[in-house]
Amino acid sequence: MEPIIMSDLKSDINTARLLVSLRLDEASDDANTVRSLAEEAMKVAKPKALFKEAFIDEKGHDYVVIDGVTFKSRVLRVNLDGVNRVFPYVVTAGRELDEWSNSVDGMLEQYWADQIKEFILGTAYDDFVARITAAYGLGKTASMNPGSLEDWPIREQPKLFGLLGDPMQSIGVELTDSCLMIPAKSVSGIRFATESTYENCQLCSRKNCPNRRAPYDPHLWEQRYKMSEGRGQN
Question: Looking at the domain that runs over 4-54+87-195, which CATH code has it been given?
Fold first, then answer.
């Protein structure tokens, strides 16, 4: 299947939630400044997504082959048990927002602008997930992202981009030599249907993470993902 571009993702954000996350009093002058910045950002923002419907060719003990490309990850392999179709993707808040935030004066204001961009990316990502879930009848889904876990390192990022053709030309997202994305407010990964609940956070022990979606489960690796010695089950 050919990659598909979504260029009309939602960019509206809940400013009340934003103010709570920034720990600002709604009646303060700082809150008024944040509201003004958020209004500017939402007018400028043009978030986009690039994705495709892809199929699994092969599964090993700690790897999967998707449309001819091998991804090495035990967690990804186990999570794709019983799955034959996946959706590699890149979602970005867009270069337009970076240009806007670069024009914002003041260190505190720049921090607020960065958080606004994070919120807009979250809105766009949620819209992307909702739309592909409905369009392809996926039901319950989960996602894995290269670099989120040691098991699937960020050096696998170029392979994911390769599945999608040229994300730079399509939606303005490129990789640095260290496999980080530009614009930074972008997210890449593989979305898939699942009957179980999965978040990368469940396997990540990092403390005080502002983006945590689920509690760390110190037993999950041993219970579900660890290969039996000499057997390599699943």
Answer: 3.40.109.40
